[in-house]
């Protein structure tokens, strides 16, 4: 039997090639591949894709744990908790320490954490264990070494609910049409200035494309918004802007997600309406500096024909976080944040009878549970349901 030999790739020129041809080949190969990466870049790549919010959550959980451990060590020096426990190979020891943490963890004001926050804390600590390449998972139901931790979590969770802690949940407030009207009346929505125009574009992009509150808006690029057709002189109800998602919380594009499609949704023109997103974008985008990549650029204080409307400087993420607050508070409304745009869009569609499949496509949700957390049925639906209980001959419309 013939000996198997590895395939050999001959990437050189034939021997009869001229020196000029060989040099051309070498030059092409130099352009083909980048410079060898440094060890720091390799290390960063091997850490995988971790959303910024997840990183922040992990840091918060770790800091909370270490603050607790240091305070406990002062009070119980004979039972010292080693701060290197996240590299500890002893699963039983880890389980015992986490049981103590679960029972003793408190907010800065001394109040107990609600179940959902306690779960977030433990999840963050678990990510730290994974990062340090321990051979166990604290949530592994088949690992008997963590039975005590699971039982402790059940006991604490049940007691918290019994005491009414974490029973009620906070949802993003939903803007009513009347609230929206008021913002227009007070001038916080409109086209009266470059800042107001930008806020208005932000508001309706958030509504029509159902974007997440801060990061997706901050990262939004001009190339993600495509006008169909591109001719700005054409404007009727068939004109639309198409938003194409690049990356999001629900779609970070892992290697195994090759078949997952990006969210692609459209916002159609509403001729005759001052709130038409197509009309607003037609007005706003041409004012951006030529060749700019991002949608939200710093507005000039004054605008004239011989000066730029928006500078080549992005609006900071902390400023963007305040956009909806500025819009609503300027109209005398309180309690609204950027996140309310997403909740408002989904609630309006839900209450108007739009199928959940369509709502999920617009929002980018991959599960109905996640979608339904945003849907807030209006009071009339609950009233109708209550009337049917009393009189089952009635129909639910």
From TrEMBL:
The keyword Ubl conjugation applies. Keywords: DNA recombination, Isopeptide bond, Phosphoprotein, Ubl conjugation. Gene3D superfamilies: Intergrase catalytic core (1.10.443.10). The keyword Phosphoprotein applies. Residues 175-327 form the ZMYM2-like/QRICH1 C-terminal domain. Residues 19-33 have a biased composition (Basic and acidic residues). Residues 1-40 are annotated as: Disordered. One of its GO terms (molecular function) is DNA binding. It comes from the Eukaryota. GO terms for biological process: DNA integration; DNA recombination. PANTHER family: DUF3504 DOMAIN-CONTAINING PROTEIN (PTHR21446), POTASSIUM CHANNEL TETRAMERIZATION DOMAIN CONTAINING 1 (PTHR21446:SF12). This is ZMYM2-like/QRICH1 C-terminal domain-containing protein. It comes from Amphimedon queenslandica. The lineage of its organism: Eukaryota, Metazoa, Porifera, Demospongiae, Heteroscleromorpha.
């Amino acid at each position: 039997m013939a000996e198997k030999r590895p395939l050999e790739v001959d990437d050189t020129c034939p021997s009869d090639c001229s020196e000029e041809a060989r040099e051309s080949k070498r030059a092409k190969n130099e352009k083909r591949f980048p410079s060898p990466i440094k060890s720091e870049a390799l290390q960063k790549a091997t850490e995988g894709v971790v959303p910024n919010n997840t990183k922040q959550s992990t840091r918060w959980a770790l800091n909370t744990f270490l603050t607790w451990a240091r305070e406990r060590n002062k009070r119980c020096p004979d039972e010292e908790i080693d701060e290197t426990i996240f590299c500890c190979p002893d699963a039983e020891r880890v389980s015992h320490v986490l049981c103590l943490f679960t029972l003793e963890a408190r907010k800065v004001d001394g109040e107990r954490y609600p179940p959902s926050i306690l779960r977030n804390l433990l999840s963050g600590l678990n990510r730290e264990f994974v990062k340090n390449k321990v051979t166990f998972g604290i949530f592994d139901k088949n690992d008997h070494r963590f039975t005590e931790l699971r039982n402790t979590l059940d006991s604490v969770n049940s007691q918290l609910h019994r005491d009414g802690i974490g029973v009620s949940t906070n949802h993003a407030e939903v803007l009513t049409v009347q609230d929206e009207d008021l913002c227009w009346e007070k001038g916080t929505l409109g086209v009266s200035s470059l800042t107001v125009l930008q806020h208005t574009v932000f508001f309706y992009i958030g509504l029509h494309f159902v974007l997440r509150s801060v990061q997706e808006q901050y990262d939004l690029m001009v190339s993600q918004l495509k006008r169909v057709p591109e001719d700005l002189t054409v404007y009727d109800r068939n004109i639309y802007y198409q938003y194409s998602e690049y990356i999001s919380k629900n779609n970070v594009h892992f290697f195994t997600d090759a078949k997952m499609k990006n969210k692609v949704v459209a916002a159609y023109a509403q001729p005759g309406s001052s709130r038409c997103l197509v009309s607003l974008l037609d007005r706003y985008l041409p004012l951006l500096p030529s060749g700019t990549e991002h949608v939200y650029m710093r507005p000039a204080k004054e605008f004239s024909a011989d000066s730029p409307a928006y500078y080549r400087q992005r609006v900071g993420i902390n400023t963007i976080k305040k956009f909806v607050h500025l819009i609503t508070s300027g109209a005398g409304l309180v309690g609204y944040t950027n996140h309310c745009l997403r909740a408002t869009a989904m609630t309006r569609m839900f209450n108007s009878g739009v199928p959940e499949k369509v709502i999920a496509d617009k929002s980018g949700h991959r599960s109905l549970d996640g979608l339904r957390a945003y849907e807030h049925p209006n009071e009339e639906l609950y009233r109708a349901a209550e009337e049917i209980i009393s009189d089952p001959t009635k129909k639910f419309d």
